[in-house]
Amino acid sequence: MEVDKQLSPDELDKECSILLELDENDPLFDKKKKLLQDNGFKTKEQVRIKRSSDPNWLSTSLKVMLQIARIIKLDEVELYFGGEEQLDSYSPRNELEALNSILQLVESSLSDACEITKNVLQDLRNLTIDKICQFAEENSLKTTIVEGQNSDKEKQLLQWGENNGVKTRLQIAYVEGAGRGAIAREDLKVGDTALEIPTSLIISEELVQKTDMYHVLEKLEDTSSETMLLLWSMKERHNTDSQYKIYFDTLPEDFHTGLSFGISAVMSLYGTLLLDEIMQAKEHLRAQYDKLFPALCNEHPDIFPPELYTWEQFLWACELWYSNSMKIMFADGKLRTCLIPIAGFLNHSIYPHVVNYGRVDSATNTIKFRLSRPCSAGQECCLSYGNLSTSHLVTFYGFLPQGYNPYDVIPLDIGGADDDSTEGSSTSEWTTHMVRGTWFSENWNIFYYGLPSPFLDCLRRARNPMLLTKTLLPENLENEIEILEDLLAIFNDMMDSLGDADLDDRKNTSWDVKLAVDFKFLQRGIVSSILTSCHKGLDLVKHELSKMHG
């Protein structure tokens, strides 16, 4: 941003500051503290913003703040993979949260600032919003509306909501590749509320407590409020007098999540961790069902009619709550699992428009879905369901996200790392390790190869505890060759276990087999990228070693 006028001495001397602080209760506090220190920052960093004759003075200040905010907002996966790389961006989620946290700090400082300082802060606010808009333009997915679909039920639900206090700037349409989605009716800016829903429409445990069902279930051992809600919804969906009849009428007869995979789809997943995830989840749910039924139907047939509490109905309700529920913090400070009519049409995206939405506004007693990035008219408005792997999204939601998912990791069972640190490492004290597609990495040099440093450091310590430096010495490079050859053996075996892609059942048109085959294709891509990185790294190290040997 350029200075348009000659600044007076008072304006040049006037400065303000923004405090960026790492929460001491952050579970990753120690690792983030070390990373902040490695980059020359403290856990409580006061960034001073002062006008200067330098035309880039404001963008320089924002760049520093963004460096700090990115580290503060890192989650475990981002910290594991990006802790040693000086990245311009760790992930779309991290970038949005970092920029919006700065925007929030600036806006809170504006309220009690003096006039000259207020001008500086306003310029900083505008620059931050410009940065968010630039990010949005560079990270947007195309929305294609599927025409000719009957959306009468969805329109009726929206009308019901608006009659009961819902405020929305969204409409419901069928989106190619996503099913039903929420589409912006108009251009929405950063900070705009796309959807506002009163708590009176939220389905939470209080509804169950008003029923005869509650007095039976509260006496059962280890029956959570979530289980009670699940059983309530199995019955309520058939209640023609229900307050939520219009909502239940919009729900699908089948949810098409991994929990409903047939035998052919399950067989297609052979060699993947998703197969184990789905089988374990179904076994858990079946055990939970058998613990409750048919006992409840036999003892209380008036409350639990057997025809409404079959295994198929139970699985449907599980899929409903897994795929549509949200964790909401209410004004009383209690976190509740809820269904929120209309909000369920907001789909998940790696590039979300709404990031923070899980708290009731005590002033209005509503849930507000505010935009963290702009959304153009006709564009699908998405939120983030959380930092979820594609295997989790397939199992409990039934879809693969568009774009590369930074949370698609393959956990590795190589034993815990010791406490020794590799020189220069800020992320060496990890006890669990993982890999992901190496296309996310920006460092392909010797000692890195596009692979996570904590993992490589662990392998180095296991093979030779005395080699603790990343220097171009013959003994270090020979150690690197052995490590890379070991990794090639491991991941070649993993690729073999995934089977031949040519044998995938791509002619099968059933939704579950198609989803399973697409997931397996994604897994092969991740493993293939790791093998490519290891081969390139091996060539790089051998070339460097040959130069030393003349």
3D structure, described in words:
With 550 residues, the protein is α+β, with helices and mostly antiparallel strands. The chain contains 19 helices and twelve strands. The strands form five sheets. The protein has a four-stranded antiparallel β-sheet with strand order 3-6-10-9, with no helix packed on it. The chain has a two-stranded antiparallel ribbon with strand order 1-2. A hairpin with a 5-residue loop joins strand 7 (325-329) and strand 8 (335-339). The longest helix has 38 residues, at 511-548. The radius of gyration is 27 Å and the shape is globular.
Keywords:
550 residues, alpha+beta, four-stranded antiparallel β-sheet, globular, disordered N terminus
Brief write-up:
The protein is of the alpha+beta class. It has helices at 9-13, 29-38, 57-72, 76-82, 92-110, 115-138, 152-163, 205-209, 212-217, 225-236, 245-250, 263-268, 273-292, 295-299, 311-324, 390-396, 453-463, 474-497, 511-548, and strands at 15-21, 44-50, 167-168, 170-175, 179-184, 193-198, 325-329, 335-339, 360-361, 366-370, 409-412, 433-436. The strands form five sheets. The chain has a four-stranded antiparallel beta sheet with strand order 3-6-10-9, with no helix packed on it.
